[in-house]
Amino acid sequence: MTTRTPYAGFAALIEALTFIIGFALYTTVLMPAGYLDSSTPVQQKAAFMVDNQGLLYIWNLIIYILFGFALVVLSLGLHDRLKASTPMLSQVATTFGLIWSGLILATGMTANIGMGMVAELHLANPDRAGQIWQVTKLVESSLGGGNEIAGGVWVLLISLAAQRARLFHPGLNLAGMVFGASGLLTVVPPLQPVAGPIFGLGLIAWFIGCGISLLRHREQAHWASA
């Protein structure tokens, strides 16, 4: 077994867990509060951020910082497994994986620094705090959420490489191609409301499948071609 493979397997499961926590908090706390609803006044959103600063700080650490670090481990671990069979494709895919990790880490740092600024301004100037909230969310969305170009390309290329190298089950590779393509479709505004959830929810299953496969199979084990 390659040195990074077991770590990559655990990293993939951590990735899935961060997605699950993110969706759980979104549906149970943020959505009911209208925190990400465009019709909610920004002053109200800023007030919600201040009132729930601790929770949101931990959420950002999990879905952005922890996700970004785990993605580096997973990207390099997959590169170890794929580079012999698909050297160029694996290298390009790994590059996009590291780019995605950097964008996600930058998103998390921006989110937490912006949240601190909003909290400082809120009591003295609620309107200004609302403006800072808007700017912070704009930067966050631009880096790691408004579209999924880097993530979509990485998942798509890794799935293509894994299929060629017979690293994972063909069904898992096909699912990765579909989910990766859905990430790319988030750049089309009318498709974003559908493509985004498909990408996010689909990656939960994909990460779990990758993690289990990496932990279960030794270096020389390959799936039989379909």
TrEMBL record:
Statement: the UniProt record of this protein carries the keyword Signal: no
Transmembrane helix recorded as keyword: yes
Lineage: superkingdom: Bacteria
Keywords carried by this UniProt record: Membrane, Transmembrane, Transmembrane helix
Membrane-crossing residue ranges in chain numbering: 12-36, 56-78, 98-123, 143-162, 174-192, 198-215
Name of the protein in its database record: DUF4386 family protein
Organism the protein comes from: Saccharospirillum salsuginis
